[in-house]
Amino acid sequence: xxxxxPPRRAGGPDLDLFAEDQPAPRSPEPPRRKKTAPPPPADxxxxxxxxxxxxxxxxxxxxxxxxxxxxxETARDILEGxxxxxxxxxxxxxxxxxxxxxxxxxxRDRGAQIRCxxxxxxxxxxAASPDDGMQVAAYGRLSVYPARGEMRFxxxxxxxxxxxxxRKALEITRARLDADGLLRPERKRPLPRFPRVIAVVTSPSGxxxxxxxxxxxxxxxxxxxxxxxxxxxxxxxxxxxCAALERVNRWGGADVVIVGRGGGAREDLWAFNDERVARAxxxxxxxxxxxxxxxxxxxxxxxxxxxxxxxxxxAAEAATRSRAELEGALRQAGARIANxxxxxxxxxxxxxxxxARDLAAGADAQVARRRAAVESVAGRxxxxxxxxxxxxxxxxxxxxxxxxxxxxxxxxxxxxFELMVRDGVxxxxxxxxx
Length: 434
Fold this sequence. Notes:
CATH 2.40.50.140; five-stranded parallel beta sheet; five-stranded mixed barrel
């Protein structure tokens, strides 16, 4: 449609969108009594509205009537052109999350309400979805939904009274991380005592980096600092922090990682409450230190990191050892080594003494066992020995060659032989008269 009417002034106690220069209002004059004329016919009224543009103007007559779609789309164009984006305060009601991810709800006060929508692409700028009954201030643009002919407020930012939305977002993120075991104390790794390379994920122009450099140079000048730049606030900060932590993992040359920034407003620190950043920090292959803001500022990254430092300077102190601490550690290590060596020597001497005693006892026991075995064998051999038989009163006949004469046929008359008895040999001759 063409021929739009000029925008009219929209005023109110909290809204003055069209403050165009207008002449000062004149003081009202007393009403004059005029002669009332009868109202013109309806057709005459309709024709008078379009007297300047003609009856062929769209919508001027029944024949040139416009479609409902044209009407609602034109109303949307007019409304969007008339209202700039603005903040609206009200109470959330009828909140629904569509299966497509969009949010739909109403903002209302005592006198009116308006339907609102938050598209999925705009939800990253909102800490969490609002709850029914929550008082919020929503920033967006007034529009018309042509398909239903409804006026709608399209929201791109939202703030709740107090910390409602942010507190809810923190609780949701913490519950998810806790369910995955990323907040368990037993998964936290100890920091290396003497790191050689420290990676610092922060803004290269921030005060936090200067504090870290000053502390490290004072305490451990030989330690190498590697800065991995990333935004620490703003919409791009979460993705940049995740990319920086992933870059440290791919590099693999750091002994410990410090991630953080200096102090600031709560919204400035919000990137370190992002679930994506927390999971990237938990996935680091080396121990991590979170140093976000000041001591009173506690972020989700502080809960996930292996060590939480109240400030960036404290993080640098936790990651390094001073010369005095190094000397003390060396003295303690020397004392531990000396004590260990003395304990080993004493233990070895004791083991040698015990071993010698056990060896002697074992040798005696072995000799006794062998003696008993020999005596047993000797007894059995003695029982089988001919000498044992002679000792029992028997004699053995042998010829002059020492061969045993065991048969009567071997004793021929006149044959000389000897009888071996227990205590000697008796020369003998076989008598011929037998």
